[in-house]
Amino acid sequence: MMNMTLVVGASSGLGRQIALSLVARGDAVVVVARRRELLDELVQEIEAAGGRARAIACDVTDPEQVSRAVALVESTDGPIERLVSCVGGGERTTIDGFRAAQVERMLSLNVMGTANCLEAVLPGMLRRQRGHIVAISSLAATRGLPDAPEYSAAKAALSTLFEGLRIDLKSRGIDVTVVSPGFLRGSMKKKRRPLKVPLDVAAARIVKAIEQRRRTYSFPKWLAWSLAILRCLPPTLADAIVSVVRLRKVRRTQESGASPATAAADRLRLRTVPTTSELAGHPFVADKVLAIGTETAPHRVE
Ligand SMILES: NC(=O)c1ccc[n+]([C@@H]2O[C@H](COP(=O)([O-])OP(=O)(O)OC[C@H]3O[C@@H](n4cnc5c(N)ncnc54)[C@H](OP(=O)(O)O)[C@@H]3O)[C@@H](O)[C@H]2O)c1
User: CA 281, 286, 290: angle at the middle one, nearest 5?
Assistant: First the structure.
């Protein structure tokens, strides 16, 4: 019997690529997002390649819509064996434009969107005493990052939520996998950037982790480890390192001829960069640690 996987956030990006990879390995997929025409194109592509798929347009921040969508799938296509929630995303923000509503938007999309899907599929899985929940979080969950603190906070909430649920669900026959990718490279046509993992590579790694039913999967490893180490450092030092990494990134953006708006926002950000003498006071500041997030960092493909 074919596994039925509900892939949420499948109209573009990582979710679309994961849906294609799962179908290539024999799953049937129900692809969910708001943009119906993109979902229909994806279903056509899957069917043309001999796979089985169905599209459902739905806004996952609305629990009513999600519950109706899941009921429809289970009554016509059979039980949902696996939920892969890729729904989410973030925006670059500035401290001058801070809005509580932005925090709410990030939580609604990145946390509540997945929680609504979980609520809808969970009763069936608990009844059958089997299932698999996959939540796509981010390495940005490891610590609060400047320029997108709302996104970091939302992904941290998502990872922590599923970490907490994992133990109870395991004893009821349901596995949980939390995936935390680093930077992804959307379009295959875009310039190659060593820091960014191409989408097809990311999807292949994630599907492998799904098949192995891993509890967590973070990649690329060098970035996951760097952020984990950063988390263990004293906050003053960790903040200083993040500021220096950002300074380097801003300089690179400026050298590459950024738009006036980006350059102006970056000038504001530079005010928060520590002075060299502030950094020199720290015994652990070494080139190796400061290389986090630079173009010269290794990009490992497993
Ligand atoms: N890109 C990266 O560098 C990166 C890095 C780490 C983690 N991630 C995470 O990976 C996941 C996918 O990212 P991506 O870059 O592939 O993003 P993306 O291309 O923007 O895809 C997001 C998907 O979510 C869907 N979606 C958004 N709001 C929705 C809603 N209210 N209801 C239903 N569907 C909704 C979108 O479709 P519609 O607009 O059609 O609804 C789209 O299919 C996200 O959780 C993101 O946080 C991304």
Answer: 105
pLDDT on residue 263: 60
Query: What integer pLDDT is reported at residue 299 of this predicted model?
Result: 28
Which residues sit with their C-beta closer than 6 Å to ligand 1?
9-15, 33-35, 38, 59-61, 86-89, 109, 113, 136, 138, 181, 183-184
- Which numeric CATH code is attached to 4-219? 3.40.50.720
What's the burial of 285, exposed, middle or buried (CB within 10 Å: 0-12/13-18/19+)? middle
Rounded Cα distance between 202 and 130, Å, is 26
| Total residues found in the chain within this entry | 302
| 58 contacts 36 by C-beta, under 8 angstroms | no
pLDDT score of 300: 30
The token pair at 19 is 């849906």
Task: Determine the residue type at 4.
Answer: M
Q: Which of 85, 86, 188 to mutate to test the pocket of ligand 1 (most atoms within 8 A of CB)?
A: 86
pLDDT tens digits along 111-122: 999 999 999 999
Structure tokens at 140: 């940005």
Residue-wise pLDDT for 194-236, tens only, equals: 689 999 999 999 999 999 999 999 999 999 999 999 999 999 9
First-to-final CA distance of the chain = 30
Q: What are phi and psi of 183, to 5 degrees?
A: -75, 135
User: DSSP character for 99?
Assistant: -
Per the CB < 8 A criterion, the answer to whether 27 and 1 are in contact is: no
pLDDT surpasses 60 at 283: no
